Prior knowledge:
Layout: E1 12-19, E2 29-36, E3 41-45, H1 52-60, E4 67-72, E5 78-81, H2 95-99, H3 107-116, H4 132-144, E6 150-154, H5 162-179, E7 182-186, H6 190-196, E8 199-203, E9 207-211, H7 213-218, H8 220-226, H9 228-236, E10 258-259
Parallel strand pairs: 3-7, 3-8, 5-6, 6-7
Antiparallel strand pairs: 1-2, 1-4, 8-9, 9-10
Helix pairs in contact: 3-4, 8-9
Amino acid sequence: MRAEITRPAPLIEARDLTVRLRGADQPILKDVSFNVLPGEIVTVVGPNGSGKSTLVRAVLGHVAAESGEVIRRKGLRIGYVPQRVHVDDRIPMSVRRFLSLPERVSDAEAGAALARTGVDGLQDRQITRLSGGQFQRVLLARALLHRPELLVLDEPTQGLDQPGIVAFYRLIEEIRRATGAAVLMVSHDLLVVMRASDHVICLNGHVCCHGTPQAVSEAPEYQALFGADSAQTLALYRHHHDHDHDGRGHHRHHGDAHHHA
């Protein structure tokens, strides 16, 4: 008799989530359902205007749902790296001070977070003097300060060059391995992010398809949005992730992509 595989409870789950922005005739998200399990990397891809950032904001509770719901595990610790952070360059702000906003942390905690993201030693540097890659790593360090069980990243590599993008996603994978934190991220870096993901959600106002990176890249809905050439290129970067993992950062078997009309 085959033993049942017990799936861990989701950290966060969206059920039939519909969001309409103020004044809009049509909802920007309609009947979106997905979940994030402990330790997995889930990536949301889609064209501009498909509702990716709105989905993140709804998951975090920053925008209200018109219908449906978002269920978070009780006491869930979330670390968030937003798409844009404006720092007024007229106000002196060191990295160390930035890490203590809005909640003060010790020097040891700040130093450990910076070391984990590869920018140790920048404590006294002015925020406005950082490169794009350094600033993203400082933002990630701040998100890690309170030992999140779920990291939420909204387009975290905007403004980075290709080597910087590759290095950042490699860092995300290392953090997942080291801390066991799950990751929910929005990205337009299709090639790189497919390699770094366990599960991909293709969004265009609704969930077009979802599944393993390989299965999604072969789905007609994905190819209609991004082109067959994109899928063929992705095959060169295939991320072998089609087996059972345990609950410490590892994913269940998916099989084929799941399609939604």
